[in-house]
Specification:
By secondary structure, the protein is an alpha/beta fold.
Length: 276
């Protein structure tokens, strides 16, 4: 599968407890380009024939297979089977807890050989909560040092914006995105509050995502962007309102990245988004 430049993906994590068939349907109806498939929740995602059937039926490709933070050989081999069935070119790994020596050892000892045996796959690690560019004194998760992920593990970064401290995001990634773009395989686009509520609707909270998208537009980054939003249960229960929100996110993305230009743009659309 040829990767569409800056394809916008819907993460299945956005719709917890939804049937996989319904998630594919919603992604298609809300104009997303593809699916970011998390296989750590729901064993229907482990059935490569079923996932392939859904992709063909709804005419929406799977770009990414996302594994759990407790990764082992069985799960990683299954992710490769799913890549083969769907033509997905990226496997992303959630960082294990600092106390999870088993998962950490598996990743650190085996990632290199998996990369060598599967040269067409982008193996990537998601930066965990409280990530910084440099080491934390007492990190909660492995792979908290983003530079270390690239240098010592020869892995791509799955850049979860919500998980980076605000200073690093605004002073490093936004201003120096050209330097980091070659090492990023996918970006999670979502907002957060100052008191660390993660994965919120992009235009509502603390991060300057408009400027980030404009900087991204000028960079060499051409890989996918995934939408992972922590909707409230009441929002998940109202499918029509949920679809409306997802379509607004798609429109926001198109406005400031896909269709963006170098002129100053009006903020009217954001005001309309907040009227809901």
């Amino acid at each position: 599968m040829e990767t569409k430049r800056n394809a916008l993906l819907l993460s299945t994590d956005t719709l917890p407890n939804y049937w996989l068939d319904l998630i594919f349907s919603i992604a298609k109806s809300c104009w997303f380009d593809g699916i970011d498939l998390a296989i750590r929740k729901g064993f229907d995602a482990w059935d490569e024939e079923y996932v392939q059937k859904l992709s063909l039926q709804h005419e929406i490709p799977v770009y990414v297979i996302q594994t759990s933070a407790k990764l082992n050989q069985k799960e990683l081999d299954k992710a490769l089977d799913l890549c083969q069935a769907t033509n997905a070119d990226t496997i992303c790994i959630n960082a294990p807890k600092i106390t999870d020596f088993k998962a950490y050892d598996f990743i650190s000892w085996n990632l290199k050989s998996y990369k060598e045996n599967n040269p067409d796959i982008h193996f990537t690690i998601i930066n965990p909560k409280d990530s910084k560019l440099f080491a934390l004194p007492i990190p909660e998760y492995r792979f908290s040092n983003i530079i270390d992920i690239v240098k010592n593990y020869d892995s791509y970064i799955w850049l979860d914006i919500s998980n980076i401290d605000t200073d690093s995001f605004e002073n490093e990634f936004t201003r120096k995105i050209d330097d980091y773009a070659p090492y990023i395989s996918v970006i999670y686009l979502s907002d957060k509050t100052k008191n660390w509520r993660w994965h919120l609707i992009p235009w509502e909270w603390n991060l300057d995502l408009i400027q980030f998208l404009k900087s991204l537009k000028k960079s060499w980054y051409n890989r996918p962007i995934s939408i992972k939003i922590d909707f409230k249960p009441t929002e998940l229960a109202n499918k029509e309102k949920l679809r409306k929100q997802l379509k607004k996110i798609k429109s926001f993305y198109d406005k400031y990245l896909i269709n963006a230009n170098n002129d100053e743009e009006s903020e009217n659309d954001l005001e309309e988004n907040n009227d809901e």
